[in-house]
Amino acid sequence: MKKLINSPDDVVRESIEGMILAHGDLLKAHYEPNVIYRADAPLNGQVALVSGGGSGHEPMHGGFVGLGMLTAAAPGEVFTSPTPDQMLEAAKLVDGGAGVLNIVKNYTGDVMNFEMAAELANSEGIAVRNILIDDDVAVKDSLYTAGRRGVGTTVLAERICGAAAERGYDLDRIADLCRQVNINGRSMGMALTSCTVPAKGSPTFELGEREMEIGIGIHGEPGQARMDMKSADEITEMMALEIINDGAYSRTVREWDSEAEDWKEVEITDPPFASGDRLIAFVNSMGGTPVSELYIVYRKLAQICDQHGLTIVRNLVGPYITSLEMQGASITLLKVDDEMLALWDSPLNTPALRWGM
Amino acid sequence: MVTQSQVLAWLDRYADLIAEQREYLTELDAAIGDADHGINMNRGFQKVKSQLPTMADKDIGSILKNTGMALLSSVGGASGPLYGTLFMRAGMKVDKKQALTADDLLALLQGGLEGVIQRGKSQVGDKTMIDAFQPAVEGYEAATHAGKSVVEALTEAADAAEAGRDATLPLIARKGRASYLGERSKDHLDPGATSLAMLIRTLAESAAEG
Questions:
Q1: Is A130 in the B-facing interface, judged by CB distances under 8 Å?
Q2: For chain B, which domains are there?
Q3: Residues of A labelled as active-site residues
Q4: What is the pLDDT of residues A236-265, one digit of tens each?
Q5: Do A219 and B34 make contact, defined as CB atoms within 8 angstroms?
Q6: Which of A111, A297, B40, B121 is deepest in the core (most CB within 10 A)?
């Protein structure tokens, strides 16, 4: 293993410390349990947006803390979900009296830790809701798996819901909006190489010189299938068509019922894309793929969307939800309406994304 | 009977075994998960081990609940809430006790099992720690009903857990990150069932050592 680190045990802590030194105007940190939060939090009367997950996906989530996006982020160990005490601490630090929305990526560990955190926070009198992001079309069924993973749509949901919080939406309305973003977003990813978790010291899997892994998540886990390497256009087409042609996807998720003070089962369905839809297109690097190659992917993606009568009205191209140094890319398409678009365009000031300021 | 000092010895022994088996558990997880099970379990049980000296005068319920809280705040992933819940629920079943009878141990094991099933929503055959845990509890119960000693019953529970662990080899995972692999999750041992089998084996060993 060759990494620009001091010690595998100190990666998460030292990275947070550096972030705070670099962005002290925007961010503060709480250590043990670790939380990155807005320097101006709590914001009185404004819903607080909290997300979190394993580290190793930077800039997600800490890099998205700031005006118009997250109020706090709970970074776990590398590729390991954060613990309930982190999200509880985050809720205490940033609740401005209007409640807290936790945006949770659908991974077994994340879901369980965030559920325990929401139970603890609600029992302490902080109104907390959890909304799940599960957008990875590489996962076909939810009956025999833990369901679709939360990937690229997470970034878009954090942005759109953060803008809504800034505009004064209440907790129920932001939770509804977040659910809408989730069911209208779909993603798929692929890897050319594996990645090395610092504490493990060797690559999570091995890919041959002429192989690629398709349908991956964001943790260096093996994906849907291993295939022979193809051209950027062929890979882009394969992923884009899986996303565009994906049918209605239904599943049951658990959401907090604040009246019953317990979890309730909610059935939700993703509507398929249709000609005439307006989209935000997000082409993401898994960390090791250069931006020049992302634009080669975007070029083909734009052609395919055009052929299907889908209009890309905004785009995001770059490394925003990564898997350490993995080479590879993911595509996310989100169908938007006027409300989501206006929220997307509103002022944003975070370490990783900034516009309209 | 299992005494308070045997419970402490069990946690210490398990922490040492996890440290020793850290790479092995992580390798199992790399094949079908995300290569962190050994790393996370070791971080959690080293924290538990470091707190054991402060537990010397505590009752068994408090020791187990404290273990659960330590795991919950240090392990992360799916293992943190699952092992954390296991120990907290187990501890609640043996509140204030300084020693455990055969029936206490059954209540402890059943409480832990129920907690893990509720939190993880899994059942036998999903290729999870339940595949080792449930046979262990059933094996223990059957052995005590047959009139065997606590040590004999725990040894049979550990045997059943290991058989359950081995039975995960051909299974297709239906829970957790391994479930995304579908057919490709076959022919691999489940890391959670493996660490759970170790937990029951070290319990049997600590009870036998007196």
A1: no
A2: 2-209 (1.25.40.340)
A3: 57, 219
A4: 999 999 999 999 999 999 999 988 888 999
A5: yes
A6: B40
| CATH number of A188-244+274-335, picked from 3.40.50.300, 3.40.50.920, 3.10.450.50, 3.30.1180.20 | 3.30.1180.20
pLDDT at A311: 98
CATH topology of domain A15-185+249-270: Rossmann fold (3.40.50)
d(CA A71, CA A313): 27
Per-domain residue ranges for chain A?
A: 15-185+249-270, 188-244+274-335
Task: Count CA atoms within 13 Å of residue A71 on its CB side.
Answer: 31
Residues of A with CB below 8 A from B78's CB? 81, 107-109, 112
As a whole number of angstroms, the distance between CA B189 and CA B177 comes to 14
The predicted complex's ipTM stands at: 0.81
Do the chains contact at B40 and A80, CB–CB below 8 Å?
yes
Residue A225 has pLDDT above 90, yes or no: no
User: Does A114 contact B at CB distance below 8 Å?
Assistant: no
3-state secondary structure A170-185: CHHHHHHHHHHHHHHE
The reply to whether domains A15-185+249-270 and A188-244+274-335 share a CATH topology is no
pLDDT tens string A63-117: 999 999 999 999 999 998 999 999 999 999 999 999 999 999 999 999 999 999 9
Taken in order B196, B201, B202, B207, the sign of the CA dihedral is positive
Q: What is the dihedral of CA B117, B122, B125, B127, to 10 degrees?
A: -100
